[in-house]
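Intended use. Records like the one below are meant for learning the mapping from a protein sequence to its folded structure. Do not use them to infer anything beyond what is encoded.
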Amino acid sequence: MTARTCPDWPQLMELDPGLQFKHYTLAQAKLPAEALISLPQVSFDAEIICCDLEHHVFNRAHTDPQVANALGSTHWYELHEWATSGPGASAA
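Structure written out for the chain above:
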C-alpha cells in the first residue's frame, strides 16, 4: 500500500481484487485527449481522479465530477460499469 492508495481499497477489492485504485493528478493519469479537451478549467496538479491506470477504470466516488463525465465518452470504465457489464463482470 502506498500513500497514493485509495482509502476505500478494502471495499474496492471486493468488487474486483485485480484492480488497484490510487489517487492521481490529471497530469499523472495521462487521460485520453478526448477527455482532456473538455476539461479546460480543471487543475492538472490536484489529485482529482481515483483509478486503476493499467485497466482504465475509475472510481466515480473519488473522482472530480467533471473528470468522470469527460471519461464517459472514452475507453475508460466507471468501476460499477466495469464490474457489472464491462470486462470485470467475468471476474465476479
